[in-house]
Amino acid sequence: MFTQSQGFPQNVSKIVFACDAGMGSSAMGASLLRKKVKEAGLHVNVTNTAISNLTTDAEIVITQDELTPRAKNKVPSAYHISVDNFLSSPEYDKLISQLHGHVTEKDHEELAAANVQNTSDDTLLLENNIFLNMEFADKEEAIRFAGRALVNGGYVAESYVEAMIERDKITSTYMGNDVAIPHGTEEAKKAVLKSGFTVLQVPNGVDFNGEKVRLIFGIAGKDGTHLEILSGIAVTCSDMENIEKMVQATSAKEIKNILDEN
Known about the structure:
Blueprint: E1 14-19, H1 25-39, E2 45-50, E3 60-64, H2 68-74, E4 79-83, H3 89-99, H4 108-114, E5 130-131, H5 139-152, H6 159-170, E6 174-176, E7 179-180, E8 196-208, E9 211-220, H7 227-237, H8 240-248, H9 252-260
Parallel strand pairs: 1-2, 1-3, 3-4, 5-8, 7-9
Antiparallel strand pairs: 6-7, 8-9
C-alpha cells in the first residue's frame, strides 16, 4: 500500500527507509530496494535510519504505515511512502518505475560507495541460535524467547528483552511473508554488546496482530555490523519458496545454508 504526500520529486538522489530503531525493518526494506535499484541500472542512494535521525536531504522516505505521521513531522518536505509489508516486492517495483524518469546524473562511484555494506561476521548467526518446531501461546512469549536466546548468546544485556517487547508495541515487527523481526528500541542500542541473530521456526504459526508468523528473526545490531546478514535475510525472505523451505527444514544447518546462499 502506498500513501503519498508531496508530489514525486524531480532529480531523486536519496531514498531513506525509516523505522523506530533504524536497524531492523528499515534495514531489510532498504536492502531489497537497493538490490532492485541496482538491477534497474539506476544510481540512487538507498539507506536506512531511525525516524529520529531523519535529515532534510531525504527526498523520499519510506516507513511502515503507522509510523508515517512521525516521519512526516520530522521531514515534511520529503515525499513519503507508507508500506504495510517491507518484504513485498511489487510495491518497490512501482517506485522503480517512477524513479526511471526522475533520477540525477550523480557520480556513480560516489553513490556506489554510499551503498557498500559492512564485512560479514560468521558469529552473527550460529546454528545453536536456530530453534526448530517451536510453539508459542502468543507473540510476547515468542519475542521473549528470542530475546532470551540473544542474552544467553552474549549479544545483549537483560534489559534488551523488555525493549524488544516495547518495540513491538510501538509498531508491529511483522514484516510480511510470514516473517517477524523483533528487535529493541532505539534507546536500547546501548544494551547491545555485539551484533547477533536468532531464528525461530514456528511451523504452526504465532499471531502477530492478526498476521500469522512462521519464522521469527530476533535481532541485535551494533555499529552497523549486522547489516550484511540482515540484507541476506531480506532477500531470502522476499521469496515465499525460501520461506517454505525454512519452515519445513529439519535441521538448523539447513536453515543456515538457505540464508547463506543469498
